[in-house]
Amino acid sequence: MANTLQHTRTRYPGLVNPNLVTPWWLSGEIAASAANCIAAYQPKGAASYAASKVNLANPGTYDLIDTGHIPAWSSLNGWLFNGSTYLDTGIIPASDWTMIVGFDFAQPMSLTSWMCGVDSAGNARFYLAPTWNQTKRLYGSGGYSVKNGIYSSGIMAIAGQQPYFNGATDGAALTAWDTTQSRPIFIGCLNQISGSPIYYYKGNIQAISIYSVALTAPQVAALSAAMAAL
Predict the structure, then answer these.
(1) What is residue 228's three-state secondary structure?
(2) How far apart are CA 133 and CA 113, in angstroms?
(3) In what helix (H) or strand (E) does residue 37 lie, and over which residues does it extend?
(4) Helix ranges restricted to H, the chain
(5) Percentage of the residues of the chain whose pLDDT score is greater than 90
(6) Short-list 166, 215, 218, 209, CA closest to 62
(7) Rg from Cα positions in the chain
(8) Which domains does the chain show, CATH number per domain?
(9) 26-72, pLDDT tens digit by residue?
């Protein structure tokens, strides 16, 4: 992903350079619903590890929480999770939300690698996993979908119940939520039903954003392109 940011006419204080306009997390005319961007994190290109944890969409609200198992970080590649490190967003998701992640495996893949999310005893899942048993990938939003084949890098997203990869739909929509979630999203692993981390991720994450609405297909496509250009 090239280290660039898109331009717009409105200034956003969370940007590395506030004079640059239309931040990537509002690409695809999401700006009309800017309040729906709950969080946007960009470890790739950040000035420091501390800066990488700042919620660019609303600094000071939902900045990432260290867990005592801190990932490595570099400005070139973002966070590097090693299979035992993770971060806490403090964000409890709900039905019809969107989550999108730019990633790249920088280490040998573990059998199961959840990049981010939270599990549920009922249909209140919300997660992205590029590999499961090194043969499949998983999406979760309410229900879940197991798909043959793994992804080693790219842009995974779930918008409402629809999975996406690199801006294109990736299979059918999932089962809708039928209950509520009470635990926050972890990055670098899955926050399992007991509230503890499991299925740690090995690899880089360059950017992630979370929205309290189901983005449209054109919005996901534009957002994926913007994230890929970081």
Answers:
(1) helix
(2) 9
(3) strand 37-41
(4) 49-52, 217-228
(5) 72
(6) 209
(7) 16
(8) 24-228 (2.60.120.200)
(9) 998 887 666 799 999 999 999 999 999 999 999 999 999 999 999 99
